[in-house]
């Protein structure tokens, strides 16, 4: 397979000088998204009852989404789509439009303990560094990490008064720099690492999982990093093997390199931007921010986790966490405690529409719910 079809290493300077990963959409495509939103709004269906036909897009709009997903699976492992007409939409309309676009790109995944399939990224007073804390509902700076899906999509509706800069780094460039500086740490990264689910594992599953930070497939690169979840497993679960000195060295070197301005590219998301990141080829973070006083002006993005039909195969050791390692499969997400039959029916329809392999799931009723 041509390397053009795989993500490759890039530096901050390369991303600055070659902007082929930025996708300004045409007025025709933008209007197509708006008309689809009006159609979906009039139909009034629940999100999980919708199909791509309920968000009908003209060719220009469909082509823009296909090109965007293609960029995440190719050279850059990322895309920044610009020009979506969010200023024409209310908060609820923008949420519906984001969901509708996702229907055409892949199959949405649940994201948290509440089994939510779309997240509002805004400061709601959360605490990132507490046990089971998540960053998307705080104004805190975030550690570099990747999300539990093939592609994470962020639609920007409002920007902060100050701060909130997005940072992205190529995981492949990180691997290459570690191999240059400390080749002895590559097998350490490919060994067993234990992570906390942060309470979102779902009924009947252990609260932590094992997943190497770096795959060993020479064709299909795959890497992950989330120091916060690794350290949470060390703190909360005594049965988890203790980190070795070499593992701590590897984490420290990752922290150093991820923030290196030669490798890390910084960008400001603007209203109407849709940022799409390949979770196996990039890591991302965000600086802290100060918000506006008025509620409707506060920083606000919508987040989708997507399984996409053009995804790569994953390392076999990742199958337990992701649910499936096959290329193009419906996989990833955090099951949480409130997975519904409506969502299972939705992902079954989406899998059929996109011709994606799917391992069927069932609803598990929590004991407290059964007793109610």
From TrEMBL:
GO BP: antibiotic biosynthetic process
Residue ranges of every copy of the TauD/TfdA-like domain listed in the record: 52-305
Pfam families: TauD
Needed co-factor(s): Fe(2+)
Signal sequence extent: none
GO MF terms held by the record: 2-oxoglutarate-dependent dioxygenase activity
Keyword Translocase: no
Keywords: Antibiotic biosynthesis, Oxidoreductase
InterPro entries: AlphaKG_dependent_hydroxylases (IPR050411), TauD-like_sf (IPR042098), TauD/TfdA-like (IPR003819)
PANTHER family: GAMMA-BUTYROBETAINE HYDROXYLASE-RELATED, TAUD_TFDA-LIKE DOMAIN-CONTAINING PROTEIN
Protein name (record): TauD/TfdA-like domain-containing protein
Organism name: Ramlibacter tataouinensis (strain ATCC BAA-407 / DSM 14655 / LMG 21543 / TTB310)
């Amino acid at each position: 397979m041509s390397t053009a079809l795989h993500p490759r290493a890039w530096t901050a300077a390369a991303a600055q000088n070659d902007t082929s990963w930025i996708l300004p959409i045409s007025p025709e495509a933008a209007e197509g998204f708006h008309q689809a939103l009006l159609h979906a709004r009039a139909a009034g269906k629940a999100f999980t009852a919708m199909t791509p036909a309920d968000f009908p897009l003209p060719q220009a709009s469909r082509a823009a989404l296909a090109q965007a997903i293609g960029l995440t699976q190719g050279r850059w492992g990322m895309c920044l789509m610009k020009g979506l007409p969010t200023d024409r939409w209310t908060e609820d309309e923008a949420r519906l439009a984001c969901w509708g676009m996702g229907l055409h790109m892949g199959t949405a995944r649940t994201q948290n303990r509440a089994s939510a399939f779309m997240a509002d990224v805004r400061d709601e007073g959360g605490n990132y560094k507490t046990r089971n804390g998540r960053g998307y509902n705080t104004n805190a700076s975030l550690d570099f990490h990747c999300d539990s899906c093939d592609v994470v999509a962020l639609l920007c509706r409002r920007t902060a008064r100050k701060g909130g800069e997005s940072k992205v780094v190529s995981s492949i460039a990180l691997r290459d720099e570690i191999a240059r500086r400390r080749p002895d740490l590559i097998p350490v990264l490919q060994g067993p690492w234990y992570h906390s689910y942060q309470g979102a594992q779902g009924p009947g599953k252990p609260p932590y999982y094992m997943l190497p930070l770096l795959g060993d497939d020479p064709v299909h690169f795959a890497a992950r990093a989330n120091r916060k979840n690794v350290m949470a497993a060390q703190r909360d679960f005594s049965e988890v093997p203790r980190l070795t000195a070499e593992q701590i060295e590897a984490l420290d070197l990752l922290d150093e390199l991820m923030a290196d301005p030669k490798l890390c590219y910084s960008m400001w998301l603007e209203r109407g931007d849709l940022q799409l990141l390949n979770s196996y080829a990039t890591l991302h973070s965000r600086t802290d921010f100060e918000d506006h006083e008025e509620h409707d002006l506060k920083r606000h993005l919508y987040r989708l986790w997507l399984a996409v039909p053009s995804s790569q195969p994953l390392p076999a050791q990742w199958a337990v966490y992701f649910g499936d390692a096959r290329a193009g499969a419906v996989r990833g997400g955090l099951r949480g405690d409130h997975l519904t039959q409506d969502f299972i029916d939705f992902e079954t329809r989406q899998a059929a529409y996109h011709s994606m392999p799917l391992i069927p799931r069932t609803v598990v009723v929590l004991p407290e719910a059964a007793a109610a």
